[in-house]
Structures are given as structure tokens and as C-alpha cells.
Amino acid sequence: MKPIRTESIEPTDAYDRIRRRFYMAIPLYLAVPAVFWLAFRYAGFPADWAAFGIGAAGWWAALLLRGPIALLVRKQPKERAGLLVGAASGPLEEGVRLLALWITGFSFNSALSLGQGWAAIEVVFAVVNGIVLATVIKRTDEKAMQAKAFLESTGQMNSSPLWGVLERLFASMFHIGSTLLIAHMPWLLILMIPAHTGLNLISVRLAKRSLPLTELFVAAVGIITLTAGLLVWQ
């Protein structure tokens, strides 16, 4: 009689469900920048597409600048390296944001468009990253196992992709608000750097405990930042 094999069965159905739900949510992700564009357009502030493009390029430049930092900390423990790269996000993004404003000008409309472009390219990146992740988890190699472990550790196995859409919505509010604040008072850069770093690091820590709590935190920061950015121009 052959011994009974007791191998664990991988929950392929769960991963298939994650992929399907994400693909169905892609239009909602892409609707986020469209909603901001329409809202501001009908409020009397049409997009300055040159500033919009520079904002998108600025976000991409800030992302590329994280590369050398990632190389410097690659020998550190994985969690510590992630924290260091995350901590660099504030100085890099807010610093590049100020440089982008110097290129476009510090007017309200330019800053509003730059912030929208900055937020929009981040949404596109999130969608692309999600498609890559959805493709990877179909495999059984080491990288796929790491991706699956990440999904489990962040509670995304049973969560709705709408949480990700909400995160992009409120993160976009933060980027637009931060751009407006710095455009109006450039010295606020010294406050937005720690605010941005704190937003990223606290969000990562909270995501390991509760997605609703994470989104509540990101929502609060995003709404406050955008509201403050609009009010300083009144």
C-alpha cells in the first residue's frame, strides 16, 4: 500500500479570484485622475497640459532617484532596507516637486495641473504594478512565492481591490494638496518632507494590521492636505 501524500494544496482559486477582481477594478483606478480633472475643469480650472506632463515626469524622476538609495542599502536586512528606501521618499518627492514648480511657475493653475499629473502617473504605475503582480502569482517559482507571501502578509488575499482604488484617491489628494501648499509657500517644503515620509512609513506599518485602518489614515492625511492646499489660495 502506498503512503498517503500530505502535500499542501496551493489555493489557486484564491489567486485566480484576486486576478479577476483586480482586472475588473482597473477602470476604477483609471477613473481617479479623470475625476479630479473633471472636477477642477468644471470648477473653472482647466488642465495646463504642459504642467501636467512635467508633474508626471517629476514623479518618475523621484522614483528613479530611489534606485541609488536601494543599491546603498541592499546589504541591510530586508525590513530595514525597505524602511530606509521608504524614508527617502519624502525628501526625494517633495524636493523634485519644488524643482518641477520652478520649471512650470508657482501660479495656482500650474500647481494644480502639476499635482494632477504627479498623482495620475502614480495611478498608472499602480495599475501596471498590479498587472505584473497578477501575472507573477500564476507561477510557482521563488519570485511568485514571495509575491504570494506579500499578498498574505498585507491581508490582500480576501480584501476587495476597491481598497486600492480608495488609496489612490486619497494619495492623489495628498499630492495635489502638497503641490498647492509648496507653490504658495515654498518654505512649507520643510514640513511636507516629514509629512510625506510619515504617510508612507505609517501606511506600510498599518497595512500589516488592518486595511480599513490604513485607508482611514491615508484618507485623513489626503483630505487635510488637499483642503489646506486649496484654502491657502483663497
UniProtKB/TrEMBL annotation:
Q: Which UniProt keywords apply?
A: Hydrolase, Membrane, Protease, Transmembrane, Transmembrane helix
Which residues span the membrane? 21-43, 49-73, 118-137, 169-193, 213-233
One of the Pfam families matching this protein, by short name: YhfC
Q: Name one GO biological process term.
A: proteolysis
rRNA-binding: present as a keyword of the record? no
**EC supergroup of this enzyme:** hydrolase
EC annotation from Swiss-Prot or TrEMBL: 3.4.-.-
By what name is this protein known? Answer: YhfC family glutamic-type intramembrane protease
Organism name = Paenibacillus ehimensis
